Amino acid sequence: MDWKLEGSAQKTDSRVLQEQEVILEDTGEDSISESFRLLQIDVECDVECEHREGETLPTGSAMWCSKNVQRKQRHWEKIVAAKKSKRKQEKERRKANRVENSGICPQHSKRFLRSLTKERLLEAKHSGPRLCIDLSMTHHMSKKELSRLAGQIRRLYGSNKKASRPFWIYLTGFTTDSPLYEECLRMNDGFSSYLLDITEEDCFSLFPLETLVYLTPDSEHALEDIDLNKVYILGGLVDESIRKKVTFQKAREHSVNTARLPIQKYMVRCQNEKNYHSEILAINQVFDILSTYFETQNWPEALKKGVSSRKGYVLQNSVDDGQPKELQKAKLLEVS
């Protein structure tokens, strides 16, 4: 019985195939082309539907979507609307600021300001004061210390860009395969395009020794002025072990002149909870002092910019104008 049914099914399939072949022969090439065209249209429609899954469906669309898709679509529309509203408010705020400050200072585009900054920096390269950051002592520094130094370099460069009379900066003893270079690239956006000189040469071989002045807190001579014919050196050193006189000894080894900031001349010690007093500053703090003095020719104003009260020093005039208690504490610790 089973083989008879199987044979009957095969005959039926054979007849269907024969009928389909006859139909194809009768329809001809035009009908076959039309069938393929319809199939192609169906495929394109499927692709287009998949492409539009993430897009906003028009109101009253007949295309069916699940509740989950509709919920996500409504959430996305709310986000887009909020962003548009925020951009509109920000645009109105900037417009109001321009109207308010129109009589104070002219508004310039970011492109113009970048061009102006670049022009000032390149001018400093030929006629401005020169500052070297000696990075030849970083081989013994830890990862944490290198990260701190990279941050100081970023802040120093940022201050120099904003200065009306910038310095030209040299990073000496600095190799592109060093851990510090990698840290600078990681921490400082656009570091590879900084407008400064990077060289593997040591600062002592890059310039005549008689033009060099190594700035170190251990020097016996206070810096009085900034000479355009001199090249000032800052030791790129972050040392949590507080090794003493590292930069001073290095300058002595190369018979180079040294100088310290005139902190003791214009500032006095003030009492604090930890009884802490230090003239050791980060390189960006020293640079802020030098840059401010070069613009203002005023040491008290410059020192106020770079020496925080946490270092245990305050300006003499601030002590004289302060409260009696502060005056008494400062005079007890005053350095002659």
Automatic annotation (TrEMBL):
Q: Name one GO biological process term.
A: tRNA N1-guanine methylation
InterPro entries from the entry?
A: MT_TRM10-typ, MT_TRM10-typ_sf, Trm10_B_MTase_dom, tRNA_m1G_MeTrfase_euk
Keyword Zinc-finger part of the UniProt annotation: no
| Ribonucleoprotein among keywords | no
Catalytic activity field? guanosine(9) in tRNA + S-adenosyl-L-methionine = N(1)-methylguanosine(9) in tRNA + S-adenosyl-L-homocysteine + H(+)
Q: Which residues cross the membrane?
A: none
What terms describe the molecular function in GO for this protein? tRNA (guanosine(9)-N1)-methyltransferase activity; tRNA binding
What is the recorded function of this protein according to its Swiss-Prot or TrEMBL entry? S-adenosyl-L-methionine-dependent guanine N(1)-methyltransferase that catalyzes the formation of N(1)-methylguanine at position 9 (m1G9) in tRNAs. Probably not able to catalyze formation of N(1)-methyladenine at position 9 (m1A9) in tRNAs.
Stored PANTHER family? TRNA (GUANINE-9-) METHYLTRANSFERASE (PTHR13563), TRNA METHYLTRANSFERASE 10 HOMOLOG B (PTHR13563:SF19)
Official protein name in the record: tRNA methyltransferase 10 homolog B
Tell me what organism the protein belongs to.
Odobenus rosmarus divergens
